[in-house]
């Protein structure tokens, strides 16, 4: 979900920098709580919202549990083109799960940005093929909460059937990987309203506004994000993104599929902008100490380029390639010019003042 970075994944006195360990909102349903995070609860793929015409904050209540009993296993027609997403977060700190929609036969998948935020490894299971694919990030729009993935080696996939038309009062079903349980369920409801504005709140209190959403009475729960809001003909009219709870009248929200498709097309064509990020960023794999002016290493992520180079806590990074760096912002700027898999010469000094350098192959940073 959109919002400011959260501090729970930072070291007590450190901050992550460009291609290091990036601190961001929660992702999908947390299957394993991150080691440095407070207990995240279950308020992830479905953001906490204060709907401007509803006003009920998200909360895991008995009402919500009772309402969820209305959901059933999704049929083959309801599941067509809907996939299950599993991610590793922050180099193994945690795991998460969500849902996606297939939009091309060769494996392009759309989902919410907040479903894949923080991920360093993504796998997508296609139920209709009984196959699991590794996925790379084509790009994302964090503000409008849309991301595109490419499944490696995927061919001849069944597509989600997209449809622009929708009318208030029609029957709908929200299909997704509810609670991250690895199976698709369908929660029935009705389309209540169009062009709704909501304020989204993450677990750390960060807020963002989403406009032009579809409001429906389906019982959307964590794990359903990125999934399908279907009309009565099982055509996708929206992508599940948020929900309210706290009463028996659970309300879900979805991004209209016409908007999802428009943003996805911009991403696929490589139209980078202030809102759209294309591809993955390179990772060095360090946490920097925010109390220091220079890029002082507070910790090194095991298995990353920094670890392989021999960087350790207390070192100060002095250069990347031929560029000298004196601040963490300069380091971030230089790293942004690299892509995962590229080589770079890293220079640093140890706590005793000794100078070192090593050429490393940069890894992939957590999704921003």
Task: Tell me what you see in this structure.
The chain has six helices and 24 strands. It is mainly beta and 368 residues long. Among the domains are: 7-40 and 76-160 and 262-278, Thrombin, subunit H (Beta Barrel); 282-364, Pdz3 Domain, CATH 2.30.42.10. The chain is elongated. The protein starts with 13 loop residues before the first strand and ends with a strand. The model is unreliable at 1-64 (pLDDT under 50).
Features:
six-stranded antiparallel barrel; 24 strands; 6 helices; single chain; six-stranded antiparallel β-barrel; 368 residues; mainly beta; Thrombin, subunit H; Pdz3 Domain
Describe the secondary structure blueprint for this structure.
Elements: E1 14-16, E2 48-51, H1 62-68, E3 72-73, H2 76-79, E4 82-89, E5 94-102, E6 108-111, H3 113-116, E7 119-126, E8 131-141, E9 146-151, E10 171-176, E11 185-201, E12 207-216, E13 228-230, E14 236-244, E15 251-256, H4 257-268, E16 276-278, E17 282-283, E18 286-289, E19 297-300, H5 305-309, E20 316-320, E21 323-324, H6 328-335, E22 343-349, E23 355-361, E24 363-364
Antiparallel strand pairs: 1-18, 2-11, 3-11, 4-5, 4-7, 5-6, 6-9, 7-8, 8-9, 8-16, 10-11, 10-13, 11-12, 12-15, 13-14, 14-15, 17-24, 18-19, 20-21, 20-22, 22-23
